[in-house]
Amino acid sequence: MTDYGHDLWFGASLPPDAARAEAVVALAGTVEDLGLDLLAFQDHPYQPGFLDTWTLLAFLAARTSRVRLFPDVANVPLRPPAVLARAAVALDILSGGRVELGLGAGYFLDAIAAMGGPRRTAAEHVEALGEAIAVIRGLWTPGPPVRLAGRYHSLDGAEPGPVPPHRIGIWLGAYKRRMLELTGRAADGWVPSLGYAAPDDLARMTRTLDAAAEAAGRDPSDVRRAFNISGRFTGRGTGFLQGPPAHWADQLTALALEDGMSVFILGPGADAPGDLRRFAEEVAPAVREAVASARAGVPRAVGAAGIVDSRAHPDSGSATFDPAASPGAQTLLAVHEHLRQELDQLREIMGQVAAGRTSAAAARSHLHQMTMRQNYWTFGAFCAAYCRVVTVHHAIEDAHLFRDLRRADPSLDPVLARLSEEHEAIATLITEVDAALVAMVEDDTRLDDATAAIDRLAAALLPHLQVEEDHLLAPITNLGIQV
To answer: Exposed (0-12), middle (13-18) or buried (19+): which is 46, by Cβ within 10 Å?
Structure first.
């Protein structure tokens, strides 16, 4: 692949959590203060616990002065494109030209229909998005009244304007062929997310996107490439974005130079301010320097963390393994990180109950929105008979991992049996947490009991996740296990 030569941007995607509105606003201020380039929010209007993304962006536009504002990505089926075009321009004018427009075709079909949106197939949503882009561009372009007769979106003599003070980029969240081809034909930017696209998937997707751009008479470099990412700065440096800042810098530099990615948008973990600071002050400068050196012709060297960190593993004999090159290992790490974050969120909301900032009922409601409760048996994420993880952003199906590992390496059977037993015990602890929160709703003096139940869950869950990583990453990688 290639480096398309675009300027590098680094940004943050924050959860628009209505229960933590003050914290969201404060964290947005941190993004601005740290000098990051982009402030992004996902747009899922059907989520009752989320702040409306456009309202939030408008509010934060008045509280910031330099950071770009980005819906990542706007749900077009629930936001009429003509109105969305006017809203984006209004925000661009009021913010001094700081808006980028991310658009999505609409992935959660039932949730869209439940909100009164159109009931369409996935293919129809893609076709409708193509028409929506034409509507938006038509209203942004000075000229005579616009007439477009589409199957899903039309304009019948609408006056264009106002004109954006800068060229607002249209970025598409795209993964499958139709969406990638639409991106290549019609978009200014592409913004996949790590939960849906592993680093190894980007080259294949890019080939589809670039071929569509060339077929439309465009230069593939006309489409900028962003990546929504997440990770941990406390890992051992054995997986993608699992380790110290130098490890992150090596891997993001590789994505910039080899896959053409030029925008990196971090979804911070439990220590959001700390993660953002490390990302802005350590990772971003190192990537900028390495990319600038490579573009200037300076030979690229392996960084302190190593672009590929292969190492001996205690459970893999003398074999080396590189989880960064294994989609299966990356899936395990991504799901585990999500579960760790959910536990941190649950502990945080309990702290809010103790401080009187939210109610016991809200705490239980929060638990029921979590992957850990919605998917009763999912902890560890890799159970043989009943395991299926559905995250907020994506679904990971891995019902047969333990079976496949046993077939490939029978010596793993003891540890797999232990982990299966722990899955059941952890599921029981989740039920106990739920029961403790029910009791707390009925009697707010039971806060200590609920907190103790959560502590018991944490004491079982966190070591369990670490054991799975210690014992399974190497075999998944070396045996080529597909998750």
So the answer is: middle
Q: Does position 345 have pLDDT exceeding 70, yes or no?
A: yes
Cα(297)–Cα(257) distance, integer angstroms: 12
Query: Does 397 reside within a domain?
Result: yes
How much is the mean pLDDT over the chain?
A: 83
Report if residue 483 sits inside a domain: no
Mind listing the pLDDT tens digit for each residue in 373-401?
444 333 333 322 222 222 222 223 234 56
Two structure tokens written together for 439: 């009791």
Same domain, 340 and 263: no
Nearest to 45 by CA among 32, 56, 34, 36: 56
What is the number of other CB atoms lying within 10 angstroms of the CB of residue 89?
21
Do residues 134 and 150 make contact, with C-beta atoms less than 8 angstroms apart?
Answer: yes
Same domain, 267 and 135: yes
What distance in Å separates the CA atoms of residue 213 and residue 217, rounded to the nearest whole number?
6
155 touches 135 (CB < 8 A)? yes
Instruction: In whole angstroms, give the CA distance from residue 375 to residue 226.
Output: 31
Distances (CA, A) of 37 to 79, 263, 341, 344, 349: 26, 9, 25, 27, 30
Q: Residue 99's closest CA among 33, 54, 45?
A: 54
Residue 234 scores a pLDDT above 50: yes
Burial class of residue 141, CB neighbours in 10 A (0-12, 13-18, 19+): exposed
Q: What is the pLDDT of residues 11-49, one digit of tens each?
A: 999 999 999 999 999 999 999 999 999 999 999 999 999
CA nearest to 396, candidates 408, 409, 383, 405: 383
Which range of residues forms the domain containing residue 458?
320-478
What is d(CA 163, CA 134) in angstroms, rounded to the nearest whole number? 15
Measured on CA atoms in the order 225, 227, 233, 239, is the torsion positive or negative? negative
Q: Whole-structure pTM over 0.70, yes or no?
A: no
d(CA 194, CA 393): 10
The conformational region for residue 297 under phi > 0 = left, psi -120 to 50 = alpha, else beta, is left
- What are the helix (H) ranges across 193-244? 199-215
